[in-house]
């Protein structure tokens, strides 16, 4: 009988596959020897594998480039990185080394831009797309950056009132309008709260922006929260956006850019079959067809891929430190950390990540539920993308079992509040950063030790006089 964990994986997926292979019965992640890291640093352990960032930026550029070439598309493509998906300096360093442009979401993001400039990681020519609801402070920071010579900053108006703060600019400022998308039918509301309602866009432009001598509408922004998908819903929303682009272009000839936001999928399963090249070609083709029919220039295309840039660089590793059989069919593998606080999307959004054992691949497998350390009943993980179950190797005797959640590099740290107070005071794991030098040699360093009790007590005020 073929009932080892390796048999299960080989029967279900192509394995080994990009990013995942075995050395003996230990898993490697992008050829990184996880056994070595675990022996050296213990668990729980968070890993940021930086070479993936450059790789994915280049993949996206290649897909757009190929689509432009094969379709005869005349615009430029700009890859912007959506900073909110991971704000770490080492991520931004990597993104900027690949010459990506940036997208911001809130006031403190502008402080981040200033810090990058101070460290000479960017110059003032960088393109900065400013999205998000503009508080007074956020608008002020944008205007100050613009006044300081960041002339390629493009505030995207999320609502019409935001324009007022930009009316007094003294030099030419390019702006964008975000078009509110209709939500997917299974949402609790019809239209996204983000952006300007479609029927207001052209009257707003004609009345408020067109007459202004210094404000130039250059970009139409469109983002579908559920991501880029080959679905009737996505194509129908893209069509609406392109109709809007064409209509706007008729009254605003200087409009020249279309921003299709983020939402490029990453792999959340070893069985993932998403064809990025195909979908990008389809998107570019649709844009081109709309513009050719309307006899207008092809717009420059901007993307703001966050998850796609950084998601696949992350992994979070735990040890199974106990087993609890609570009835005849439910066996819990208790891990030395909390799922709620390290991969909060798994808890809050039912997001699935790639979950694999790190060792014991030659061991017989069994059905388990992964249990987190917090006292919360919902601190568990019991299904994968394709099956409503989780299988793990059996733990024999005093053998150790390590498990890893992979492609956890986007959003999890900011949502869980990296370095802050954690549910049940369960500390954030030690964090290792893996980088590649110019000759392709990998090295790593400890970015942060496991969160200390002292740091939490400080935040909570126990160390105040
Ligand atoms: C305006 C905007 N752009 C880009 C993104 C990035 O999306 P993703 O991480 O799915 O690529 C988001 C995410 O919420 C967004 O709101």
What key phrases describe this protein's structure?
465 residues, alpha/beta, Lyase, Ornithine Decarboxylase, Chain A, domain 1, TIM Barrel, 8-stranded parallel β-barrel, 21 strands, 32% helix, binds pyridoxal-5'-phosphate
Query: If classified by CATH, what would the architecture of the largest domain be?
Result: Alpha-Beta Barrel
Fourth-level CATH superfamily of the largest domain: Alanine racemase
Number of domains: 2
Total count of strands: 21
Examine the coordinates and then state which fold CATH places here, giving the name of the CATH topology of the largest domain: TIM Barrel
- DSSP strand content: 15-25%
Mean pLDDT: 96
Describe the main β-sheet briefly.
10 strands, mixed
The assigned structural class equals alpha/beta
What global shape is seen?
globular
- Taking the alpha carbons of the first and last residues, their distance comes to 66 Å
Outline the structure in words.
32% of the residues lie in helices and 23% in strands. The protein is built from 14 helices and 21 strands. It has helices at 5-12, 34-41, 51-71, 89-97, 107-118, 136-147, 198-209, 232-251, 276-294, 307-310, 339-342, 344-348, 412-416, 453-460; strands at 20-23, 26-29, 32-33, 45-49, 77-82, 101-104, 128-130, 153-157, 173-178, 215-221, 257-259, 300-305, 314-325, 331-335, 354-357, 365-371, 380-381, 390-393, 402-406, 430-436, 442-448. Strands 4, 13, 14, 15, 16, 17, 18, 19, 20 and 21 form a ten-stranded mixed β-sheet that branches. It has an eight-stranded parallel beta barrel with strand order 5-6-7-8-9-10-11-12, surrounded by four helices. α3 (51-71) crosses α9 (276-294), α7 (198-209) runs parallel beside α8 (232-251) and α8 (232-251) packs parallel to α9. The longest helix is centred in the first third of the chain and has 21 residues, at 51-71. The protein is globular and about 75 Å long. The relative contact order is 0.15. Pyridoxal-5'-phosphate binds at residues 82, 85, 103, 131, 223, 227, 261-264, 304-308, 410.
């Amino acid at each position: 009988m073929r009932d080892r964990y390796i048999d299960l994986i080989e029967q279900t997926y192509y394995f080994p596959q990009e990013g995942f292979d075995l050395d003996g019965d230990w898993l490697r992640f992008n050829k990184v020897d996880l056994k070595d890291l675990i022996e050296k640093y213990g668990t729980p352990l968070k890993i940021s594998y930086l070479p993936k960032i450059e790789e994915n930026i280049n993949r996206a550029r290649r897909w757009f480039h190929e689509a432009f070439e094969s379709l005869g598309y005349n615009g430029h493509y700009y890859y912007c990185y959506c900073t909110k998906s991971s704000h770490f300096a080492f991520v931004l360093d990597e993104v900027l080394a690949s010459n990506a442009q940036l997208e911001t979401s809130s006031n403190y993001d502008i402080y981040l831009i200033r810090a990058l400039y101070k460290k000479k990681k960017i110059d003032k020519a960088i393109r900065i797309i400013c999205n998000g609801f503009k508080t007074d402070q956020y608008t002020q920071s944008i205007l100050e950056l613009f006044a300081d010579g960041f002339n390629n900053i493009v505030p995207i108006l999320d609502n019409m009132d935001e324009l007022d703060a930009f009316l007094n600019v003294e030099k030419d400022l390019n702006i964008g309008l975000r078009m509110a998308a209709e939500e997917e039918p299974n949402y609790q509301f019809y239209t996204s709260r983000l952006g300007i309602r479609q029927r207001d866009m052209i009257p707003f432009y004609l009345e408020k922006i067109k007459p202004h001598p210094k404000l130039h509408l250059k970009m139409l922004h469109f983002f579908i929260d559920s991501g880029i998908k080959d679905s009737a819903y996505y194509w129908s929303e893209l069509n609406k956006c392109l109709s809007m682009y064409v209509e706007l272009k008729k009254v605003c000839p200087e409009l020249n850019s279309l921003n299709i936001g983020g939402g490029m999928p990453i792999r959340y399963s070893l069985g993932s079959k998403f064809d990025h090249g195909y979908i990008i070609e389809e998107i570019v083709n649709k844009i081109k067809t709309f513009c050719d029919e309307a006899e207008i220039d092809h717009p420059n295309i901007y993307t703001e891929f966050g998850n796609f840039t950084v998601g696949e660089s992350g992994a979070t590793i735990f040890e199974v430190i106990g087993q609890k059989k609570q009835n005849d069919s439910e066996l819990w593998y208790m891990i030395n950390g909390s799922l709620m606080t390290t991969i909060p999307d798994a808890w809050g959004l039912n997001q699935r990540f790639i979950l694999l054992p790190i060792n014991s691949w030659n061991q017989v497998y069994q059905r388990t539920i992964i249990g987190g350390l917090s006292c919360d009943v919902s601190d568990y993980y019991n299904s994968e993308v394709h099956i409503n179950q989780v299988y793990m190797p059996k733990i024999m005797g005093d053998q150790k079992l390590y498990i890893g959640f992979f492609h956890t590099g986007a959003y999890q740290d900011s949502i869980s509040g990296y370095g802050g107070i954690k549910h049940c005071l369960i500390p954030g794991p030690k964090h290792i950063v893996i980088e590649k030098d110019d000759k392709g040699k990998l090295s790593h360093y400890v970015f942060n030790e496991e969160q200390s009790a002292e740091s939490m007590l400080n935040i909570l005020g126990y160390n105040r006089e």
